[in-house]
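Structure in, sequence out. Go:
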């Protein structure tokens, strides 16, 4: 057996090896710089609101509104008499406190009743501001308030006549509308009655007899016994007036033009019928395309009614009239055969104007760009044909119905092109408009960016170099090359190789293998790209260099491992010596 002394020696050696074993340690940099903190004066939110607010018990729609602001709002809290009332996220604008919750929470048990509200807004820095409001809830001691309407007089047969009472009341209960009259058939009548919710009241008074007066009385009361009344006198007079008709202006337009009309506005309390007749002063039925025009057709409406209490528009469309002069006359009758008329002169004059062309104008763009088009439109009442050419080439022609014509001018070669549009109308009147399209040469070099060199170790002290780059051009690229060599590119004798770059799996990225180089070698390189434009723009990057690095495992120094190995071997020798010494003693 080993002695106690020997065991102590073994333990000491084991601890020594443990301490010499490589370990990961944390380095604390005590000399790290400290970034100074700027001191900023913080500003609390601002909030303002009413100091007092009073409302009658039972009334609705009461809201406390507070104006508050802060660049970084956070939350708001509302307390009522020191207790939580409401809270939520604050977005930096107004804060509203709805007093209806005083009822939903059953907080009004006596009258009058006062409440102290504290509204606090906070920002994201924890700063807060508050506003205080005293709310007085008082008893309902007023009768309903009625806004007195005007008396009404209307002509027998008219409609849309209403009495509207605007009423204010906190505790509504009941309403009643009665009517008295000198009409023996309606001396006293209850028109409406029932429960009242506090809303305004409207009563229709149409259909009453002429030469009579009617007295409408509103009665309203609240739940506390207070009441109010309001009366309105309605008088119905006989229909003694003629129908009312407006007088629109005379109309004139070019033959074939569209969208013209005559509009009369007519009204009568007791409408009956109307007619629109046309007097042909002159017309030429042979003028213009066959079948495209027609004579005037009279209009008769035997049962004239309308839904708008203010009357009705009577509209007559003039499209398609023959060339000529017309007088259109509207005749309106009421139930009492009272007649009102109005006449409008309509002139359809010849088309003596060639098409008026409006175009987008000349266009200039750089070779390769897209999204360009040109358009022609024309004002013409009788369109027939169109013809579009570019130089001597006919691009399109055919029937024209007045629509605009648009054509793309993308993908043209460099040069100036003239597009000529000709429009012809039925009367062989024509107009032309030329638009020039100029395509200028590509003025931009191909884009070359993100140029990098990747090194991969192929043998000890030797790396393979691969260059990659992003290359793009609006007109595409016909040539992408890398040029590289060893030496000084500024010297006249500098030799370099040239190699085509091939597409990468990523779009518009290209790569090329430069071969193997010994570590420490300085390799110079540049990228050459030529576009597919008419001028074959070439972009050559500046020379750049890369130093071939030594690529090997960088870890704990080999000397350290040699020392550890030596100590390990020494420890093994000591252990074996002790072991054999112990065995020898055992045999003795």
């Amino acid at each position: 057996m080993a002695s106690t002394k020997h065991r102590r020696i073994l333990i000491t050696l084991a601890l020594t090896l443990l301490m010499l074993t490589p370990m990961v340690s944390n380095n604390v940099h005590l000399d790290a710089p400290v970034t100074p903190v700027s001191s900023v004066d913080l500003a609390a939110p601002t909030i303002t609101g009413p100091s007092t607010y009073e409302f009658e018990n039972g009334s609705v729609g009461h809201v406390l509104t507070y104006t508050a602001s802060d660049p970084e709002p956070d939350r708001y809290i509302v307390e009522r008499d020191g207790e939580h009332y409401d809270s939520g996220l604050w977005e930096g604008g107004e804060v509203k406190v709805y007093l209806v919750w005083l009822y939903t929470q059953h907080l009004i048990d006596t009258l009058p009743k006062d409440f102290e509200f504290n509204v606090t807004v906070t920002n994201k820095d924890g700063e807060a501001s508050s506003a205080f409001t005293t709310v007085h809830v008082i008893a309902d001691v007023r009768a309903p308030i009625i806004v007195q309407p005007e008396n009404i007089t209307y002509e027998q047969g008219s409609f849309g006549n209403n009495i509207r009472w605007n009423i204010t009341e906190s505790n509504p209960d009941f309403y009643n509308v009665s009517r008295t009259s000198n009409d023996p058939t309606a001396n006293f009548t209850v028109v409406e009655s029932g429960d009242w919710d506090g809303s305004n009241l409207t009563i229709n008074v149409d259909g009453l007899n002429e030469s009579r007066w009617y007295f409408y009385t509103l009665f309203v009361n609240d739940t506390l016994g207070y009441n109010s009344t309001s009366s309105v006198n309605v008088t119905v007079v006989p229909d003694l007036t003629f129908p009312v008709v407006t007088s629109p202006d005379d109309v004139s337009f070019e033959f074939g033009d569209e969208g013209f009309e005559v509009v009369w506005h007519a009204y009568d309390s007791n409408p009956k019928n109307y007619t629109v007749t046309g007097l042909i002063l002159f017309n030429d039925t042979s003028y213009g395309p066959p079948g495209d025009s027609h004579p005037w057709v009279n209009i008769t409406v035997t049962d004239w009614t309308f839904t708008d209490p203010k009357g009705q528009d009577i509209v007559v469309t003039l499209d398609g009239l023959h060339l000529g002069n017309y007088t259109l006359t509207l005749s309106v009758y009421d139930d009492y055969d009272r007649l009102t008329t109005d006449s409008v002169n309509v002139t359809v004059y010849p088309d003596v104007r060639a098409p008026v062309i409006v175009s987008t104008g000349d266009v200039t763009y750089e070779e390769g760009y897209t999204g360009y088009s040109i358009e022609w439109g024309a004002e013409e009442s009788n369109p027939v044909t169109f013809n579009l050419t570019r130089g001597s080439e006919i691009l399109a022609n055919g029937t024209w119905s007045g629509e605009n014509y648009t054509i793309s001018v993308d993908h043209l070669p460099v040069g100036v092109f003239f597009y000529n549009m000709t429009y012809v109308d039925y009367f062989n009147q024509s107009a032309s408009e030329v638009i020039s399209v100029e395509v200028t040469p590509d003025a931009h070099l191909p884009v070359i960016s993100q140029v990098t060199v990747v090194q991969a170790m192929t043998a000890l002290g030797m790396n393979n170099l691969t260059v990659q780059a992003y290359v793009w051009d609006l007109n595409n690229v016909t040539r992408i090359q890398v040029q590289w060599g060893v030496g000084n590119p500024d010297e006249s004798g500098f030799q370099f190789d040239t190699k085509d770059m091939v597409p990468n799996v990523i779009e518009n990225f290209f790569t090329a293998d430069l071969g193997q180089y010994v570590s420490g070698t300085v390799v110079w390189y540049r990228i050459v790209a030529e576009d597919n434009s008419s001028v074959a723009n070439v972009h050559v990057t500046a020379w750049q260099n890369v130093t071939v690095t030594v690529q090997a495992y960088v870890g704990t120094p080999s000397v350290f491992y040699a020392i550890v190995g030596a100590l390990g071997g020494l420890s093994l020798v000591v252990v074996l010596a002790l072991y054999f010494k112990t065995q020898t003693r055992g045999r003795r």
